[in-house]
Amino acid sequence: MRASVAGCRMSVGTLLNGLLxxxxxxxxxxxxxLSEHAALLEEELHMTRQSQELSQAHIDxxxxxxxxxxxxxxxxxxxxxxxxxxxxxxxxxxxxEAEEFVFFHSNFSVMLPNLGSRRFQPAxxxxxxxxxxxxxxxxxxxxxxxxxxxxxxxxxxPDVTLIxxxxxxxxxxxxxxxxLLPAFYTMNQYSxxxxxxxxxxxxxxxxxxxxxxxxxLSSKQPLLKEQLRNFGKLMCFTKSYIGLSKMTTxxxxxxxxxxxxxxxxxxxxxxxxxxxxxxxxxxxxxxxxEAEKDGGSAEDEKVKEKKDDYIVVFSRSTTRxxxxxxxxxxxxxxxxxxxxxxxxxxxxxxxxxxxxxxxASMLVSMHGAQLITSLFLxxxxxxxxxxxxxxxxxxxxxxxxLASLPGMDLHYISWRNTKEENTITHPDxxxxxxxxxxxxxxxxxxxxxxxxxxxxLCCRNPEWLFxxxxxxxxxxxxxxxxxxxxTKTKPSLKKAKPSTTVYxxxxxxxxxxxxxxxTNEAKLTVSWQIPWNLKYLKVKExxxxxxxxxQGENTYMPYILPQQNYTFSENIKPFTTxxxxxxxxxxxxxxxxxxxxxxxxx
Length: 602
What we know:
The protein is an alpha/beta fold. The chain contains 13 helices and 28 strands. The longest helix has 53 residues, at 2-54.
């Protein structure tokens, strides 16, 4: 009996012991889970704080992470080729460890266009506005969204971002032509790329000397590639656009063929002037001509224009110097009876230079990147570009092309030093500043003997560099003669008015009538009404182009006519079907679209 009682007591004790161990284990497990949950919450809080460091925009980290894990990355692009493609991404990520963008796949991912391996032939898109340059290609790696479990926790960028490459941020021409203008109009294409969007530069350069100009495009500080490392090993952009519009570029730099204007220029001076005005607004600069008030007599206006007119001369302090700059300035002031203002990128702020140029009647400068500032000149101003000895102005025309764009309304003049004794060369400088001492003696002698740099490809041609970095003693009499010949008269003090190119619409109600005169003779009468927009326009000259083609033939007969109807009899055969097209022409070269083709049977 005692033994059974003792056994019972042991069973109860063992049971209680087991229960106690279970309770403690459960408590420890719960504590462990709570600690793990607390750690996850702490980590999410930390990642949220990192995201907040990037932007003031609020982001729910848990929601963003869940969206990435469940929906993966989404991509929709415009453009048919890598050279004209811009892509919008949701939740595209960047691994600073691998220095690669990452597309996470899930059942809900979108990839349009879905190119497969063609995405690597040669790339998905160009990251810069310089077309098809193999250092500017963009692509991404692919991973399943499930891989996120084994990767560092992502930091989310809540801002809408524009991700691009700056092509050469140390050079002012490249800054404007390749970066600022394309970025400005790319941002204009997409409504959410507004003043609150953030620019991300992935080319790997430092800020460079002109970084303040990039800051003008957005109220938020741009991010450099090297800065992305500071925010974690994996960054995910909640909404981003990648690539730049190339529609605003007008010049190619000679990577495939010698440099020159692009074959198909799509931008006009009107768009460039709108861009210039937007930048001036950001810099709090008011163009002189815009500040003038209407009113006053014509005589008062002439006096005011005479008083306000001046010439700007760009002064360089290190390379490509004008050795007799003071003499040149005095000659300009005397010849044109205007004051002359000098500006210098090395010594003045960029806004102060733009302020001076925006009211000038003439801008004079040696060939160089600073001449891109001519886009701030008022309409009717002259751009005068000086070239060192042996450099042909017709082979290097980025600023001539800019000045000549329809709607820029600038007058371009070039002067070239033709006297070798008026040049100072620098053969002992580093090669990138025109030095040739590193070359074989025979090659040095060939370069020194040559009086004209031959056409060449970009970018390290030693003869081109040697000649373009010469200093020049400007022959003032020949320089003034070129100016007189270029302008014919002194520059007009009256600023040109904005001009707009308007094309005709389709001619309306085209119709044809036919008649057979004899078995060998017939007549075809074609008539139409004027384009609808013509009645609201003042056009100097209006003509009409008519094409007539016999059905089944490959050739057509073109006619230019001043009236809205005409009877054709020459080469018109009886019992024959003719196809007829009609369109309107303004001022000899503004061609409207053809109206629908007429089928006329004689």
